[in-house]
User: Fold these one by one.
Assistant:
Number 1:
Amino acid sequence: MKSPKKNAHIQKLLKKKTQLKSVSSKPKFKTMKRKPPPFIKRKGSAYFQHHQLSYRLPLILLVASLFILIIAIPSLIVLPQNKNNKATEPADDFTIMNEQQQEAISVAVMRTKADVVEDVSLENYIVGVVAAEMPVTFEMEALKAQAIAARTYTVNHLLTNDEDSYDITDTVQDQVYKNNDELKQLWGSAYEDNIKKIKAAVESTRGEILTYEDAPIMPAYFSMSNGYTENSEDYWEKELPYLRSVPSPWDLENPKLVNQETFTKAELEERLGITLSSDAADHITIARSDSGRVSQFTMDENTFTGREIRDKLELRSTDFSVKQANDHYIFTTKGNGHGIGMSQYGADSMAKEGKNYEDIVKHYYQGIDISTLDEAAPTLVSK
């Protein structure tokens, strides 16, 4: 017989074998770990990136499509295209309005030689005046001063002109004016450079005029003084507060300051409508204004104003003296022009010293302001 201890050990082994057999007899299944949903994956994993793109790509395409439909296409339709097919940035509406209004101002210019009226926009007319009235070789600030003076004269004339057929003439009666064709003929190969300079001066003062107590002034100007400008009432009858005599010492350095004109006794008698004695030069008396110009001229008891002598003899200025040499009379003049307002040569000299166009106009026109057309001539702009 087997011992009880040994039997117990055998039974234990049999029981364990039976348990193992029962387990091994169960169906076999391959165990797989369940993958967690994408949102618990780490962002650095390829799995996450794949699913992230799969969700985001349609959303990006949708947003891009909406942007093209709502923003891009209407912009391409609305914005004007230039020659390079590039959209141009729209300018400020207020600026566009002012420039359009200014360009709408037309100046009817009587072309004296051709006896026709030429309609020109205001700013183009000012270009033609500056080019004709002032040497293009002058400093830019002097050209700007000329532009603003010419524009002011034109606006003043447009507001007060009574003529029906034209606004202004193209002669020294008003302002000398030359159109594009005339300037091309005058300047030849230098036309492109010259017209660019003139246009730059005009454009930089676009829409600006000179005013006194909010009204456009009468901006007289002339070529060259005798060292001083003239009070308006000493040449014209009307006294204007902004046309006062001021120093213009720069003109004294001009080599063309002095000029002489010689007349025979017969020529002088014909032009003045008088009869002269053989020693008429000994019977001359001259009264002068504060600026040194002749206010009254008497010769052989025949009395004239300085302006009358200048006009009848076509002298350069009213600052003159007379000498007799046998049967000839020599008139020596200083300066060039009526002497009222701005000296053009003085303006150029001031510019060379570093003065700007505001400095120049405020020196020659006393107590004035620089205003815009909208402010000083609204009725003209609104036409």
Number 2:
Amino acid sequence: MATATLSESNSSAPSVGGPLLGDAEFQFMRDFVYQHCGISLGEQKRQLVQGRLLRRLRALGLRDFAAYCELLRREPEGELGELASVISTNVTSFFREMHHYDLLINELLPRWLEEKKHGGRLRIWSAGCSTGEEPYALAMVLAEALERTKSTVDARILATDLSPQALETARAGTYPLERMGGVSEARRNRWFLRGEGSYEGWACVHPRLRELVTIQPLNLLHEWPMRGPFDAIFCRNVVIYFDKPTKQRLFERYAGLVEQGGYLFLGHSESMYGLSDSFELVGRTVYRKRAS
């Protein structure tokens, strides 16, 4: 029986699922992803990357991974969002980590609305908004606070992500009912329009929530067009993909955009310990910007 080995020049060798990802192509992708996304791909991720990118190769009509790498060299920005969608996992839900929303509802939003009632602006950034559940959940509690206090404060939520597919879902604002387990019955009735006919089993966010949320593409490692300041930044389950230097740079950039005394919210498995002196821990993965 003949045997074959995978070498740098053997990236197009046939396999049951399609072409193989060779050493040279995988190393190029590792360097490319780290440079443009800040994500470190270990050797153990090779099979995962190969499997997920095969669908992308077929969609683009490319023969092998060498051709895909050439596309990245030729049009890095044009394909970056699609590549990021492939290698990252967009796992999110409405009102995930409810203690963050409780803090907003019970303490932060009432305080901010009172402080800004004579002309201030309230701004929250959902950085890494994925398919939109997080910013729309934020919009629900914000809209409720505005109604409850009869506030006319200029309040907005910015939602950004690198993935074109995730942003498309977020802009559509339409979700299957089974994805809405974290939304109470009262909020479902208040903030969602239930689908009928061919849209049976789906729900669309209320126009009021769309008014509060601006959705834009953004690479966190590139230039940021917004200048802030933000009262709070939600960057949850995003920095788990980054190495320490990338996290440090990102946290300092956040510090430059957060109001004095403003807040940064991280995911349940994330921490700023030893990474930034600009914030202090004040709750479960809740950080407040220190006084300068």
Number 3:
Amino acid sequence: MTPLRQRMLHDMQIRNLADNTQKSYLIQVSSFARHFRRSPELLGPEEIRAWLVYLREERKLAPASLGATIGALRFLYRVTLKRDWSDEDFPLPKKPFRLPVVLSLEEITTFFDSIASLKHRAILMVAYAAGLRVSEVVHLKVTDIDSKRMVIRVNQGKNRKDRYVMLSPRLLEILRTYWHDAHPREWLFPGNIPGQPISRDAVGQACQLARKHSGIQKPITPHSLRHAFATHLLEAGTDVRRIQLLMGHRSLSTTSRYLKVATSTVCATTSPFDLLPRPEPTPSAPAAPEYF
């Protein structure tokens, strides 16, 4: 490990960045340095710009995928190398705004009915019933299920924040059935490696298999269930601020995007087409006489 890599790692650890963020940033900077075959200390804004053009034009990365690269380079040069560079030296492409595809209640039911494994069904039901991120679901421990207070404790979710979410009585029944079948000890959903929780990839694969068996044409990922959780709460009349707290969103604007897909918002207004006068029914032609 080079001294610069070690220094950047220490800077991230001091600022308590998430483990996944630290790994991602190191990978991004390493790729940047290998591309130019020089230490990042010898590279500047022109190389950064050329690197982003290469990723966009040659590697065909979407604008959203460049966020980790730009975040890593900003951290390296501004924090670790203490370069007094502006945001213009790290050009961030504008992301296209996309609304989530939301499953209906009927589709959610069909999806769950298509999951053969009790363990996988419990995992994906937790994602929907509590609105958790897949990383939060897989890191649940048995002790995080508080049936006396009817809450689930989410330890160190995104942005290193703890929060509580509701424990659905119906979900509690499912989890008890799963617990009596699997008897998990530490991790609520253990993986194949002893002492480790199930991986996010394994949950994603289970989700895709269930989607295939369900026959649902909409794309479904574990995160789709979190989208459905927020949208269905909003359609049921839950306050946006309360949904923000349950979802663990830092900004209310992130939660507010569900207003754009909730039927309680989109369908609450009458289309002007329905206000147009209906045309008078055209009189039907007299029936032709029958000769046989």
Number 4:
Amino acid sequence: MSVHSSSASRDVLPLLSPMHAVIGPLPPPETEAEYAYETLWNGARVLVHLPGDGTVCLLSATGLDVTAQYPEFRSLASALPVLEAVLDAEIVALDGRGRPSVERLQQRMSLRHPDAVAHATRDLPVQLTIFDILYLGEPTVQLPYTSRRDLLDDLNLAGPGVAVPAAWPALASEAFEQAVREGFDGVVAKRLTSPYLPGRRSRDWIKIKQGDAEA
């Protein structure tokens, strides 16, 4: 299975930029049911291009092709052998307790030489956390968050080194407290009706970190 170059992927799939969240407090009780709550991973953002030909391309938030730095994700292409897709994800390095480690991720991101990268797949493993879908045979960015999550869940992409995180409905404070208990920095509140806005920072997504949960 080969690695697809970014230029080749662009001939098949739309070239999009990630949507970004604003930083803010948890939604108040009167509006909390308008959102779903996902864990804040603090990883390296990537858009995953799957042209449907057995190849995969990872593009960073700035559009750089970082596929060769993470060869363990090549097998993801076999999960969607025919469908063309663009997925929004974060690359995360976990510590011994299964919690995201910025330090370990930075070590992995600094590697470029193929031999160093090959060794790192064993010594500094990373996980691909997929949380949105921008294209699946046709654009999906105009669909509401709930519909995109349903499409993503139906793909059954979870496997070794790949995860689709849970999204808590309605219970803002409970979701935040559980995420913090599990060692994460907080949650992202995503409005259930919101479309995906490529390249934009929108209040439809609110990043809530420890210390920012209260208005």
